[in-house]
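Homework-ish question, so no full write-ups if that breaks the rules, but can someone show me the predicted structure for this set?
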Amino acid sequence: MYELCDVSRSFDGTAVVERVDLAIEAGKTTVLIGPSGCGKSTLLRLMLGLIAPGSGTVKFEGAQVTPLSAPALRRRMGYVIQGGGLFPHLTARENVALLARHLGWERERIDARIESLARLAQIAPDVWERYPIRISGGQQQRIALLRALMLDPDVLLLDEPLGALDPIVRADLQEELKEVFDTLRKSVVLVTHDMSEAAFFADTIVLMKRGRIVQSGTFRELDESPEDPFVTRFIRAQRSFAAG
Amino acid sequence: MRKRTAALLAVVLVAALVPLSSPVDAPRVGSKKFTESVILGELVAAAASGAGVEVLHARELGGTRILFQALLSGEIDVYPEYTGTIAKEILAGEGIEGEGELRSRLLEDGVIVSRPFGFNNGYAIGMLEERAQKLGIRTVSDLASHPDLVFGFSNEFMDREDGWPALQRVYGLAQRDVSGMDHDLAYRQLASGSIDAMEVYTTDAGIRYHGIRTLEDDRGHFPLYQALLLYRADLAEREPQMVAAMLALEERISEEEMMALNAAAQLERIPEREVAASFIARELGVEVELETQTRWDRLCKHTLEHLELVRRSFLLAVLCGLPLGILAAKKRRAGQLILAVVGVIQTIPALALLVVLIEPAAALGLTGVGTGSAAAICALFLYSLLPIVRNTCEGLRGIPPELRESAEALGLPPAARLRLVELPLASRTILAGLKTAAILNVGFATLGALIGAGGYGQPILTGIRLDDYALILEGALPSAALALLVQALFELCDRIVIPAGLRLSSQG
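A: Not a homework solution, just the prediction itself:
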């Protein structure tokens, strides 16, 4: 799905992503995890082509992601930003339909697509005509997910999709998201800083630290055969925090 | 959608550019913005009218430079001028003496000089009789022994070759507290005692009214200011009857008569047009029909003129300001430049900007001075840019980065992002900019009267000149009311243009 080859990127002289090689498998869920500032969100934005790498290449299904190719490629990627990123001037329905309408889809086709998407997530019927300011956080996140899925993308990229939610909503939505991923069998790249969330979703976990990949593999691999003391520290820290 | 936008743009552009009234093709008389000049202009108009030639009188166009430029460019065909002004100001530095030399020099520019009307309206220095008496000042030389006196001169007098700098030199005057101000305001300052002396014209009605002593020019500094007409050489071919009629005024007006005419207009508040008509009837035996203008007529006329100025300049500013603001938000470098330029424009004094714009406007074949003045519209347009450009730029820059990124990640091309997401999100700020620009525009448009563009500024200027509060209010009140109306219209616009989702959020 994605192939990142020796990718580096710095902002104002500070390296944020450094010499990253990473292959993301189709149909699997890959979780990018690490402490804040480790470059995981930047990596996601490099995949979307929202920013260009300083050096190295990013390829999506064999095509290189460049500022020129990115706009077209992006329509085959669904992106959900932390907090949802719904446009406050549009209703939930208008948010989901925005791109399809711009592309000139017929009204019937849009309605049918939204109806079939609505079955994936638990959305109260009256939410569709409301503006984001009047929609709860959990529902906003669901709408944002459906907006990303509207054009049936090949890959779903999610940046801390559960980050801004309170614990109960979070637990519900986590289950629901997992179901959606399983139903759709899409490739998913998810960014989080929470190891239990990573373990819950991931086929592959990619642990990052200061712009570099420390280790990638299943949770069991990371837990049982860490390649660096940092891996154990990171897993322990989150466990003791969860227990204590 | 794109077609609709283009259609809307076209409609706004047409609305901005098309003048409501077409310019009338008639000979134009100009006058400066003081009562005597206006009366002389009316005399010419009345004389022409008596001879069956209808002319337009572009009253109170401004100062010497504006009038002479307008004459050269053909904006006006004739205006009253003074020999001293021609020698010392229009042809300053050319060392021209005497009427004959003056005549042949101006003919080179295609301008004919008439014979004098018959009176001298020279400069003099005036003080309140009482104050002058107390200080024992009778001549200009006497001023030298009172260096603490406060002087207020018209801006023109401050700059003229024969004005304050020369007077100071010739008489060795050491006064430091000397400021430039509007001539009509100077009278009030003098009456209230804020200034001790000002320059007056020797036929000013204000001299009698305020009880002013004119100081004797004991060193003969001030040249003669014989009033006469300057007119374009081609006018004699185009309108021989009009020229013959107006030249009948040569040598017909004495100094006393002129002061009486000034007093009738200024002190008795008889409209200049009537003052002129009765003089023409008395002296030349020509009856001129007068259309009477009620206050309501004037209000309607000024409202139309004012709206015309605001409409054309504001719509143009919107059409240019929005794209400039968008450009400024998108391109960092260009943005800094654009914001700097529109910011600097705002600091240019209105009169300077108006005067600078007259010539280019005339060169483009547009109306430079008078009603529908392109120079006034252009100046208003420039003043309206800043709030529009800045608010558009700030509104777009202020969009939360996550929303901008969401729009980009969604795969919307830049133009669609702008139209569907960014402009709606910035709509509140942009509209606030438009509202500010429109309200300022209504106020600034009163300045258009400085170059005869009409509107509510006209009664304000005339009111200041005639010291007539009712007339000032006739311009100031409707102008304020119009500003409030514009404000209300924009509040209504907010409800239509700002998306419902954003209005909800502002209510919390």
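Now go work out the reasoning yourself. Hint: The mean pLDDT of chain A is 88.
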